[in-house]
Design a protein that fits this description.
heterotrimer, A mainly beta, B mainly beta, C alpha/beta, B: mainly beta, five-stranded antiparallel β-sheet, 2 helices, 11 strands, C: Peroxisomal Thiolase, Chain A, domain 1, nine-stranded mixed β-sheet, 12 strands, binds zinc ion
């Protein structure tokens, strides 16, 4: 049976500690990330409680998050267009772990929101959308699937707490009928 | 046609961030374990591949065959060197540091290490020898050798 | 159907080798590359002297914790005084490696290529998921404090919704692959488990649970690819690379429907066209769809057009994808069973098809006669599809 040989010396965590020549190293690199032209304006919009997209003059899609180019037509986008911020939940999950896989005290609900924006056909494969927390929905809403297709809108932080960040939107919450 | 000509130039926002992790723990590897054990004994290893001796020691040879780890003994000589005046943040060091590529007669490759020598006296061909930390402080790392120093004329 | 590109040399795989897959091997990354490369060369009856060019694949540098991993891995992969290229498309790397090796030979540039995939994920503490944080967009995504599993969970949830697939349906993939891996000598996560075990395992990001995911692994895998003239000289049973396909979908992953892997369909169409395959669901005999998560195997079976959309869960229940089934998938045990040293895992899948097509897989050999096979991998932020079609 192939493979006939599988070289490799397995080492358990406790045995690793006994080996000579083990190196530990903590890297920290600091960055100042440029948000670039389109996202800088987008972040300023968030601070004002507005969700901004950019219009492609060719296919007429309003791209959210905005970019300076339309990747479908590969040309510059032109006008800024404010979208209402409402939309439907495309998919949602419940996270019990944080970034480094630590258990969270309180699970979080995260989703992708298909935003109401001009230029897209109903149910199209590509859409304007954001990735954010969901609030006002339960774990059971996620597991049962009730949350998918639910109409939502952003819950904004109070203006004085906004920093020009994705977190100026606290979460997306159901639109009460 | 450049981008800025067609787009409205806005004030660009910058977001502070960092890339870090709690730590990396690197395993020494097959040859690395033996090299580490040797350092603790105050020895420096190379690898013999056919008729050639290579430094530093590795598991495998240039032709991909498995090499034979052997101790290499001096005298070490400076094959090239540089004098460092600033630290990695561009700050002036109190005292310049000599970093050298060190080799031995008849071996290929070499080690990079500090040499404790007056920058005015350093030269290619200078004979040097390793100065190890006290045995109980050695961890099987290249820093078990504190530095090399010129061989005393006797 | 004619190939859609100019091909100077037909290309065959003539050797394959693997290291163990484990969470923590003593070897350094370059030693792992060396071990796998040696196994592959030995299996082909070749030495490094016979190799013209080197292709090395490795996923983010942050996993091994060494920048410029391509250069770092070069000498272990046999790459000095020779052309070497490092390939990196995230999880898609493993199948990109043979695809790029194919370019080198098919173009006539090299007669023989040593293609190596390596990953050492045990270096990062407390868990490599922490270093995954830096693949997210720093403006739009990182502020939310995401864990990488979020996006896969979002995709799985969408697939379940659109295809009306249950958690039980999806868990069956993990059961099948971990069972298949019991016969794989390199396997890290082989086990006889039940659907219930999967559903009772730790919930990480619902719907994703611990046993829905492949493990954290160290390992390397290598292939030797050769032009037709060399291949016929060194072996009586070359395995031909008949088609390759690569596609990158929209990087704005939350601007597209996650229920269907469009990136894979496009890559697969490219590869099938080159291979002259018109009805993959009938013509492909055995497949290694990329399975870092259990739902991904179903997703990819559909993207590879081996089943109709949303049909994979039903076929899986019927045993269609078992080793004894009509279209065995992941007979190796896949990433879920053998392990997931990222770039090495995709190469391992292609190696498995190489052994299957030569009837050398022993206890893992599928029951039916095999002639054509397909493998895929997937990566970056869920948008890269890489496909290789093999035949005897
Ligand atoms: Zn457009």
């Amino acid at each position: 049976m192939k493979p006939e040989r599988t070289p490799g010396r397995y080492i358990r965590e406790e045995d690793l500690r006994r080996l000579p020549g083990v190196i530990e190293y903590k890297p920290v690199a600091r960055y100042s990330y440029s948000a670039g032209q389109a996202l800088s304006e987008f972040l300023r919009g968030l601070k004002e409680g507005r969700i901004l997209g950019k219009l492609c003059p060719s296919c007429r899609r309003v791209l959210v998050p905005p970019r300076v180019y339309c990747e479908f037509c590969f040309i510059h986008t032109t006008e800024w267009v404010e979208v209402p911020g409402t939309g439907v939940v495309e998919t949602a999950v419940v996270s019990y772990i944080g970034t480094a896989r630590e258990r969270l005290e309180k699970p979080e609900i995260i989703g992708v929101i298909r935003l109401d924006a001009p230029g897209y056909r109903e149910g199209s494969f590509d859409f304007a959308g954001l990735f954010h927390r969901l609030c006002g929905v339960t774990e059971d809403d996620v597991k049962s699937g009730r949350v998918i297709g639910m109409r939502v809108r952003p819950r904004w932080r109070p203006p004085e707490e906004r920093r020009g960040s994705m977190l100026d939107i606290e979460c997306f919450e159901p639109v009460q009928p | 046609m450049s981008l800025w000509k067609k787009s409205r130039v806005v004030d660009v926002i910058h977001v502070e961030g960092r890339m870090e992790t709690e730590k990396y723990v690197y395993t020494p590897g097959l040859a690395g374990v033996k090299v580490a054990e040797a350092l603790i004994e105050g020895k420096i290893m190379g690898v013999r591949c056919g008729g050639e001796l290579y430094i530093p020691a590795k598991t495998y040879c240039p032709d991909h065959s498995e090499g034979e780890l052997v101790e290499v003994r001096g005298p070490w000589v400076i094959k090239s060197y540089t004098i460092v005046y600033e630290d990695m943040y561009g700050e002036k060091l109190d005292k310049p540091v000599v970093v050298a590529l060190l080799g031995i007669e008849g071996a290929r490759g070499g080690l990079i290490h500090y040499v404790d020598v007056d920058p005015d006296k350093v030269r290619i061909g200078l004979k040097v020898e390793p100065v190890f930390k006290p045995r109980e402080e050695r961890r099987g790392l290249i820093t078990d050798i504190m530095f090399f120093k010129p061989v005393e004329h006797s | 159907m004619k190939p859609n590109i100019f091909v100077k040399d037909k290309v065959a795989i003539v050797g394959a080798g693997l290291t163990l897959f484990r969470r923590r091997l003593l070897e350094t990354p370059r030693e792992l590359a060396w071990e796998a490369a040696r196994e592959a060369l030995n299996s082909a009856g070749l030495t490094l002297k016979d190799i013209d060019c080197i292709v090395v694949g490795s996923a983010p540098d942050a996993f091994d914790g060494i920048h410029m991993k391509g250069e770092y891995l070069a000498d272990g992969s046999g790459g000095f005084n020779k052309p070497l290229v490092r390939v990196f498309v995230g999880g898609g790397t493993g199948v990109m490696v043979p695809a790029v090796a194919w370019w080198h030979v098919a173009s006539g540039l090299c007669k023989t290529v040593l293609a190596v995939g390596e990953e050492k994920m045990s270096h990062a503490y407390p868990h490599p998921q922490g270093v995954f944080a830096y693949i997210w967009d720093p403006i739009l995504e990182r502020p939310l404090g995401p864990n990488l599993i979020w996006i896969f969970a979002l995709e799985m949830r969408r697939y379940m919704h659109v295809c009306k697939a249950s958690k039980e349906d999806i868990a069956l993939v993990s059961v099948k692959n971990k069972r298949n891996a019991l016969d794989h000598p390199a396997a890290q996560a082989a086990a006889n488990i039940t659907v219930d075990d999967v559903l009772k395992s730790e919930v990480l990001v619902w719907p994703v649970q611990l046993l829905d995911i492949s493990p954290v692994s160290d390992g390397a895998a290598a292939l030797v690819l050769a032009s037709e003239s060399v291949a016929r000289r060194v072996t009586d049973t070359p395995v031909w690379v008949e088609g390759i396909g690569v596609t990158t979908d929209n990087t704005h992953w939350f601007n597209r429907d996650l229920a269907y892997p469009r990136y894979l369909e496009y890559a697969a169409r490219m590869a099938y066209k080159m291979a002259g395959i018109e009805r993959p669901w009938k013509e492909i005999d055995v497949a290694e769809p990329y399975d870092p998560f259990d739902y991904k195997e179903l997703h990819h079976i559909e993207g590879l057009m081996l089943a109709r959309r949303c049909e994979a869960p039903k076929l899986l229940r019927e045993g269609y994808f078992d080793r004894s089934g009509e279209l065995p998938t992941s007979p190796s045990g896949g990433l879920l069973g053998v392990g997931n040293p990222i770039a090495a895992a995709g190469v391992m899948k292609v190696a498995e098809l190489f052994w299957q097509l030569r009837y050398e897989a022993g206890a893992r050999q599928v029951k039916k006669p095999v002639h054509k096979a397909v493998a895929n991998a997937w990566g970056d932020l869920m948008q890269v599809g890489t496909v290789v079609v093999l035949s005897t």
